[in-house]
Amino acid sequence: MITSLDGAVADPERFATVFDAHYEEIRRYIGRRLDLDIAEDLAAETFLVAFRRRDSFDAAKGGIRPWLYGIATNLIGRHRRAEMRRYRALARSGPSPDDGGHDQRVVDRVAAGVSVQKLSAALAGLSRGERDVLLLVAFGGLTYDEVGAALGVAYGTVASRLSRARTKLRDALGVEV
Question: Using CA atoms, how far apart are residues 64 and 47, in angstroms rounded to an integer?
Answer without folding.
Answer: 11
